[in-house]
Write a structure and sequence with these properties.
alpha+beta; 50% helix; 151 residues
Length: 151
């Protein structure tokens, strides 16, 4: 019976220790949540940095394409957008009133989120380039002389 009595004392001692430390496993849970939070913040920061670089690439592509298109070099403007813009980027070029406007846009996450990055660049068409001779608003070419003079 002596062994049984000491076994009972040990059991009582371990029961007492369990009652005084009820949070013994919470440190592991808190560490796991902390690590998950750090990873989530890291991924958000990484996504933001990626978005900034994609926006810069769109801006560079739009500026380069507008400059080349304003000089009349349409083929090189298209190549510049393909080379400089991010993958899956779309571009649109408009020529009006002696100016060229190039817009380059990309969806960084595809169709997952409705987020779209866009950059737009404008340039005046060089003299002699098709579309550069379009008169400004309020001006018109009158055949045979200056505006208002008899023909």
């Amino acid at each position: 019976m002596t062994g049984g009595a000491s076994g009972g004392a040990v059991r009582a001692e371990s029961d007492t220790r369990a009652d005084t430390e009820p949070d013994s496993g919470s440190v592991t849970v808190e560490a796991a949540l902390g690590i998950c939070s750090v990873v989530a913040v890291f991924l958000l920061v990484l996504g933001a940095i990626t978005a900034v670089f994609l926006q810069l690439r769109c801006t560079d592509a739009a500026v380069e394409a507008a400059r080349l298109r304003a000089r009349g070099d349409v083929v090189r403007a298209e190549r510049a957008v393909e080379r400089v813009a991010p993958d899956n980027a779309r571009h649109h070029t408009t020529v009006a009133n002696g100016y060229v406007t190039v817009t380059v846009g990309v969806r960084p996450l595809g169709e997952v989120l409705p987020l779209r990055l866009r950059a737009r660049a404008h340039a005046a068409l060089e003299p002699g380039v098709a579309g550069a001779d379009i008169p400004e608003a309020g001006q018109r070419d009158v055949p045979g002389g200056t505006p208002g003079s008899p023909g």
